TrEMBL record:
SMART domains: AAA. Signal peptide: none annotated. PANTHER family: CELL DIVISION ATP-BINDING PROTEIN FTSE, LIPOPROTEIN-RELEASING SYSTEM ATP-BINDING PROTEIN LOLD. The keyword Lyase does not apply. Keywords: ATP-binding, Nucleotide-binding, Transport. It comes from the Bacteria. This is Putative ABC transporter ATP-binding protein MJ1508.
Amino acid sequence: MNSKQEYIIEVKNAKKIYRMGKERITAVDDVSFSIKKGEFCCLYGASGSGKSTLLNLMAGIEKLSGGQITIKGHNIHKMSEKGLAKFRQNTLGFVFQSYNLLNSMTALENVELPLVFKHMNPKRRRKLAKEMLINVGLGDRIKHKPKEMSGGQQQRVGIARAFVSNPEIVFADEPTGNLDSKTSREVMDIIKKMAKANKQTIVMVTHDPNLTKYADRIIHILDGKIQEITEIKSETTLDADVSDIKQTDENFKPEVLPAGSSG
Ligand SMILES: Nc1ncnc2c1ncn2[C@@H]1O[C@H](COP(=O)(O)OP(=O)(O)OP(=O)(O)O)[C@@H](O)[C@H]1O
């Protein structure tokens, strides 16, 4: 079997040691696992177990102390800064616990942002961003700024922004960490629907056992190590109805213009 075809992310003996003066903290301790394309994978564990560090290593945000991580066959920790930035832009989307929206911009402008970085034609990117906001149920809030929206609405903008450029992989770090349980379910349903509609791979960090039911696979982390990996049979995974989600595959035909030409 060609593992490069089978797995989109491969983590081999990943290690992260933080040095705090004389103290060494092993946040990720010799961790190996692989994630299949289209899989919803959950990194689950208690606070301080190393989940976020592991996610940040997988996204190339933190540097490895040892081991290697490949995404689509590329050793991301061997890439140049520029190469990695480009790779992230083309392949990865991010959803953060604290939303990380730009407060001075409207919902629409926030969602457009990844497409601005891709130098997409303004008309096209506005159309795509609007469609994404409609997909997440915010068609009537496109001109609102983050402070004029609820936490759940802000996170839906965050999801629209993460998915608008149709990334193959979306990393989500405690995406519902600041939300109540009902809003959390709504947000998780949207993430699941989006990913399913476009066969995207999701890697989500959570300490909340209620959220693990959305995953195809749960990687249990304890003290920086994998404690166990639970495969969830597809019949028991919380499935989402994707009929009302517009497939970005169809819509996303970026008209990439040279830098600076989009006005
Ligand atoms: N920049 C850093 N410098 C030093 N130690 C760090 C740093 N970041 C994380 N750590 C330590 O690494 C360990 C793992 O932290 P990490 O944030 O990955 O855990 P987590 O499971 O995501 O926790 P939480 O759910 O609370 O966010 C912790 O002991 C933490 O104190």
